Amino acid sequence: MYHHMKKISVLLFLIVSLGVLSACGNNDNANNTNSTSSDGEVYKLKMANQVDEQNFQNQGYVKFKEILEEKSDGRFEVEIYNGGTLVSSDEETVDALNSGTLELATVSAYGTANTTGVDGLKLFDFPMFFKDRDELYQIADNELGDQLREQVAENSNVTALGFVDMGFYGILNSKKDARSPEDFKGLKIRSSTADLHLETLEAMGANPTPMAYPEIFTGLQQGTIDGVTTSTALIYGDRFYEVAEHMTLTNHVFLPHLMLVNNDFYNGLPEDLKEIFDESAQEYIEHARNLTIEAEEEAIQGMKDAGIEVIELTDEEREAFVKAVEPVIEKHIDTVGKDVYEQALEQLGK
After folding, report:
1. Where does the record locate the signal sequence feature (predicted)?
2. Of residues 58 and 39, which shows the higher confidence score?
């Protein structure tokens, strides 16, 4: 009897042991499955802008989508919302990025400044401050630009990956050829809500009229506004010249955008994908800058071909605008920060 009970005990032990080993094996398989699933996770992100699908800015977004999805072998999926379908202003865009409604977008320096409190970014809106885009890049891509991007991350739930060049501002109007500040006197010119943009137009004699970007075409068509100031490439890309025929290449301010990404999304990426994301962002920024240069050239020639009077200022005519806007810069040095202003002057050798 004793030997019989012993055999049963041994048999039960073996059965239990096999059960435990089997359970462990199942757990290992489950862990391996989870690990594989985690490694293969697809990260989806939404991008948004306020321009037409064919606009060079949106085409830059499309290129970023291609770069990112290809480099990651499909582990990133990008959805693009254009034409103001998801956001209709820079401020709305930054709010959406902060909350995570959007993962990625490019936003004007002034829009970023207004929503994050990094007033140093308003330096880029100083009228007639940068004589060419090389000077813009000299600030944006070096120490001062890095400092400003770091402040954005400190003040918000977004990371600024770099600066995208959206081109020089020009002024399109439906009333007359304009070669001097006096020629703009009394004209209702659509502007952003940025203080510097409003005051610059006032200094030029115009009547600045803020309006949401998607409403500009209709505003020009219906005579609610007499003109618009934004980058020359955007004026052409969004076909505003179809309802206004006088274009002045004032080049009075640059339109740099910051490429902004939601921190929760960005910091939650695995290291290998974060590296791919950063590489793709820098490749996009370089591509977008080249797109802008090409778009400006195409815009100027395209408007001329369409019969638009495109006025390129002489040095003497430009100097009249420089003098007209000097008080605007003086007024806002303290807003931007005297240290930021002086650092910029030093870097530019002015």
Report:
1. 1-22
2. 58
